[in-house]
Protein: Sulfotransferase
Organism: Malus baccata
Amino acid sequence: MIVVLFAMVCGVYICSICLKQVSTRTKSGFSSVQVIQRPCPHPDVEPEELRYMHHPKPNTYSRAECACNPVRYFAILSMQRSGSGWFETLLNNHTNISSNGEIFSVKVRRSNISTIVETLDKLYNLDWLSSASKNECTAAVGLKWMLNQGLMQHHEEIVEYFNTRGVSAIFLFRRNLLRRMISVLANLYDRDNKLLNGTHKSHVHSPHEAEILAKYKPIINATLLIPNLKQVEDTSTKALEYFKSTRHIILFYEDIVKNRTKLLDVQDFLKVPKRDLKSRQVKIHKGNLSSQIENWGDVQKTLTGTQYERFLSVDYRRR
Ligand SMILES: *[C@@H]1O[C@H](CO)[C@@H](O)[C@H](O)[C@H]1NC(C)=O
Ligand SMILES: *[C@@H]1O[C@H](CO)[C@@H](O)[C@H](O)[C@H]1NC(C)=O
Ligand SMILES: *[C@@H]1O[C@H](CO)[C@@H](O)[C@H](O)[C@H]1NC(C)=O
Ligand SMILES: *[C@@H]1O[C@H](CO)[C@@H](O)[C@H](O)[C@H]1NC(C)=O
Ligand SMILES: *[C@@H]1O[C@H](CO)[C@@H](O)[C@H](O)[C@H]1NC(C)=O
Ligand SMILES: *[C@@H]1O[C@H](CO)[C@@H](O)[C@H](O)[C@H]1NC(C)=O
Ligand SMILES: *[C@@H]1O[C@H](CO)[C@@H](O)[C@H](O)[C@H]1NC(C)=O
């Protein structure tokens, strides 16, 4: 009798805890978060891991034979001209990965946290239709998100979203920030001057086009050089600090260029079957930095003896 009574009390207690958890979940601000449904059993999976496995039910189509394949949610967090466009074409070369580009380059989608959450919900429910969508057999879905596209501004809510919804972050940074600066300046110049037969291109697919774009040599303002490099460095440090509680991986563009096994690490991180990934994009600026900057002497003088001196040295070897 006592045992039965004890069991009943325990039962009621456990129920009340459950109810409490349910109510905190709905109070957390993301009312559109679907209650986790698990029609597909994954008996061998750790509970901690289940948090990152999703079974979205798109509104516009059925996941058909892949309905029970779990889907991982990811976001590539990066800065302009850090190789993220190239990186994304590599990911999209995987049959099971769908990375939908810079969705938040459109300002209204990042006007406030509600529009951000609404956009992410749609994306992660596999209802975002872009040229990268692979529909029913997608096993990892995500986007490319630049730090200056509302990410830093709304970091608290976005981190909460990532953690409650089980979104993994892929940081992609560039080690050589001076090379990044050249790419930024050249891209800005091309936007106004459209070197390729009057069309502005940020990424190219032929060595010929790359050569034309690389002909332009920017002049770098030596006074602003160090403050600019420092600002970019500080922004990436801050982003890592903000998002450190999320499940994440940190990648550097240069490492992927030199060592393609880094791409296996990424596929491991996303838990997709491993493939050899290819991109058709061609690198625009290659070879010696000295031949890519108009006022190389000034730049060299400014950086020599500073913490940024390493950016001057040859760090590029073509694969
Ligand atoms: C991956 O790239 C290769 C080579 O460019 C191409 O043949 C293949 O169709 C691509 N696969 C996907 C899924 O895009
Ligand atoms: C968020 O932005 C959208 C689009 O600009 C607007 O319609 C909506 O009223 C805003 N919501 C809040 C809570 O500010
Ligand atoms: C990957 O996609 C193929 C079809 O393109 C599908 O047969 C396979 O089950 C998918 N793999 C995963 C892990 O979802
Ligand atoms: C641009 O012009 C060159 C030569 O005038 C031509 O060979 C090339 O096909 C053109 N490219 C495009 C994209 O129109
Ligand atoms: C560099 O930038 C500073 C601050 O904007 C400006 O005062 C200066 O004239 C610039 N120098 C050159 C050479 O453009
Ligand atoms: C390439 O990357 C892999 C995985 O990150 C690492 O284990 C390996 O040591 C790297 N190889 C070189 C030559 O750096
Ligand atoms: C690059 O610079 C090194 C040393 O400064 C020089 O030996 C080499 O010839 C240069 N390469 C090119 C392609 O200009």
Notes: The longest strand covers residues 72-78. The chain has one domain: 50-312. DSSP finds twelve helices and five strands in the chain.
